Amino acid sequence: MSEPWLARAAAVESWARDLRRRIHANPELSGQEWETAALVAQTLAGLGLSTRTGVGGHGVVCDIVGGSPGPMVALRADMDALPIQEATGLSYASQRPGVMHACGHDGHTAMLLGTASVLAAARDRLRGTVRLIFQPAEETVAGAAAMCADGAMNGVSAIFALHGWPGVDVGTIATKPGPVMASTDTFEIVIQGRGSHGAYPHLSRDPIAIGALVVIAAQQIVARQIDPLEPAVITFGTFHAGTATNIIPSSATLTGTMRALSASVREALPRALEETTRGVCASQGATCTCTIHTGVDPVVNDPTWTVVAVEATRAGLGAEYTAELHAPSMGAEDFGVYLRHAPGAFLRLGIGDNAVGHDCRYDFNDAALVHGMACMAVVAEKALDAADLR
Ligand code: NI
Questions:
Q1: How far apart are the CA of 385 and the centre of ligand 1, in A?
Q2: Measured between alpha carbons, how far is 353 from 375 in angstroms, rounded to an integer?
Q3: Can you give the pTM of this predicted structure?
Q4: Mind listing the pLDDT tens digit for each residue in 224-259?
Q5: Is 251 helix (H, G, I), strand (E, B) or coil?
Q6: What positions carry a catalytic annotation?
């Protein structure tokens, strides 16, 4: 028999909504989450829970120890905001110019605090320990690794997280086994050509024209070198060169991101990009440097724990609040870092019609809070039971 998590979550809904709006109004960039972390720690203390702060930066870890001994499962929320000027016009819009919760991490943090409240009230019924992980610096995909290095995953048998998702019905939980989010690695290419007067291109090795060839040739990697059944993305996000209309500059700098859902494709992309870039530059009489910055693994849901999470959600929220996820996203998340330490599942929480994440009009939908809180609570309860049986 499960706890009435939905009713318990509904009882703290307005409290969680107030917290969410307070966090929304006071967003902090990745690695600068002082106030948010302090609010989290203070709120948990108010619930009679003890915390470990300063974990991997501004991370907060809180263990809710159940009434009977057992394994430990973890729930994770991210706390950071984005360098975007908010344009929602909301009464609780960001009070910080150029900083905004445009990915719903305000909602994730408030929901996990709400989950803490309902789990703490029912802790006697828990068989084991629920660890709450409040993570900094997700947007820079640095926070999870720092928290893991600081012991956040020690002793954890399974881990789960929710991410608000526009376009999915409000309160509906959608997931699937296998890959759900992509890896991300970034690159910087510097093309060294030869500058000249704009009127005498034959005297130059034009790095802008060569860079344009590199951008086009890189798309051939995805189209012709990667199995078409394996998703891959190479996107150039910046291309900087030149100072005037009539001068051919001597160098150009291009940066971008590479995405994949499998380890083999992830490994192939940087190698192919470097080879292609060198080949194109050599053919045009230029040289180049190609620097790869390693990002994070794809998020690959464990099949067994995905079933546990889906069945728990069905039991706790009702079948009408679960949906099968058909395709992964090529967006990235550093949740995959935790999955190196323990298996688990990453769940989407529907927030209905909304601007897409990282848009200046985005606002996490408060109507989804109650379902998110109940989902995390019931998943934690059932996962403890499942971990105990393993
Ligand atoms: Ni996010």
A1: 29
A2: 21
A3: 0.93
A4: 999 999 999 999 999 999 999 999 999 999 999 999
A5: strand
A6: 80, 138
